[in-house]
Structures are given as structure tokens and as C-alpha cells.
Model the fold of this input.
Amino acid sequence: MSAAAVMSMSPLLRLPAEIRNKIFEYALTSPRPLHHRQPRTKFSPMAPTASHRHRLVEEKDMVKAKKGHRSSINRLKLVCRQLYAETAGLEIRFNAIVFSPQKLSPFQSSPHLPASEGKYFKAAEQWFLDFVAPMTPNKLQWLSTVIIASGVDCLTMIQPKAPPMPDLPSLAMFCKQHPHIDIRYQFPNFGFDCDIYPSSLNFLSAGVCLVTALKGDRAGAKARDALLNTNTWVQIGYEEAQHWREVWNIQYLFKDIKNFTIMPTAHMDPSLLTLRGDAENLHITETQWIEWQLYSSSWLQHGISGA
Done:
């Protein structure tokens, strides 16, 4: 049968384009952000080339994706050429996209190398830049929210080395060129799950460090004094954040950029409950407790930016 005959028999394809678009939006919208999974990159004598088609999977399919199943939220594009033309990549218009660090073993299928050879690590922002590089300007307009999920806790800034944030200048340039795309850089819970010191102290001190790095010494000192006074742990973090800012030139790169935000992954209610308990154990005054609430709510809902 001809393509025109097949289309004429399809109830979906006979609908007006406006109604089809509503159906596509309903079918391709996930209740949670989509997760980017790496393309298949296994080389062998039987398959000398690799597929570089990035996959976007729903959170419920993450386990299947890790086991190598080629699941993807968009199956409409596999039905026929017309649906492929109308829906390929459309899922990025309706969902936030999460990019996370991933390990690759591109040569594990080679008979000449052991399985342990050739493994390397690719950071979340590198995956994101790789994902958007081939996109046309029209398709880039579809993107609305991108989450760069760093695999390193931001509390490592109090150690001699700063948290690795590769390709930060490229990410800053992308933000300037595409101000309509909301870029959220997520550190795991602002150290909320770290075993050092009470979780609230970790969370608040990490926030002070990020304010210092993105907004400068004056804003960082104001947050430090309002939240934790002259606590030695926080003072060390404040000074190391100054060093971290200089290492990555982060305050300069993201100054006045309104679409780049650093956010924690902690949820609102559990964190505030823990904050209340820690405030009582640390004998925090009522005035300071109000500051804890204000700052914590702001960071959890809006993140920290240099704008």
C-alpha cells in the first residue's frame, strides 16, 4: 500500500495537526524529568561503528536502561515516517532533562583488550554539550529546562581541591547564547547526607560557600553571619569558597547570567524538619532560626545564582 493510503486509514493521522500536537504533548510528557542515557559505543569487528543516538528515558525505566535495554520515552517516532518527522526529539519540549556523569567502556567488546581497559569517565556537563552540539537552532528552541547533576558533593570545596566542574566556560557561553533555557546545576543535597557535622550545618555552610563563589565576598559574609555566626567550620568553608571561585573563575563567568542556577537535590519538608531539630540541639536563637528558614526555603525553591 502507498504511504498516502496508509495515512488515510490511520485515525490519528486523519486528525487536524492542532489536535495531533495535543495528543503528542500528552503522550510525551513525563511526571518526572527525563534522564539522558549514553549512546551505544561498543566496537567490535562485526560492528565497527557506534550509534551516537542519545536516549531520553523516564525515571521508571532507568534500571532497564542501565542494563542495556534501548528504552526511550518517544516510541511514536518508530511508527511511520510521518510520525517520525512530527515527533522526533519533541519530548525535550515537554520535559526537563537530567544529565548525569556516566562511565564508558568503549572497547570492552574488542578481543584485543581486557574488559578493564579503555574505561573512562564523562562528566554531566560534557554529556549535555555533546547532546546539544548537533541540534539546529529551531530544535534548541524546544529545550526549556536542563538539570546538570554533578556526581561530586559541593562540600569538597573545603578540601585542597575544588569540585570538578569541567567545561564551565562552554556552559557559561551556552547560557548567554540561549537565555530561554533554564540551566540548573545540582550538587547532591548541598552535603545534606554527609556524615561530617549535623546535616543542617552541612547544608547551610555549603549554601554560604556557594553564595560566596557566585555572588562575592560581601554576600557570602552576610549569609555566613546571618546563619552561623563565626562557626569555625563555616569560616573555613567561606575562605575555601573564595579559592574555589578563583580556580573556576565562576563569579566572572556567570555574572549577570539569569538562567544558570546551582541547586540542591534535597526535598523541602524533610530538610526543614531536620533543620528544626538541629537548631534546637545547637541552641539557635529564634531570630537565627527564622534566617535558617528563609535561606533554606530560597535555596531549595530557587537555588543560588550570580544574577
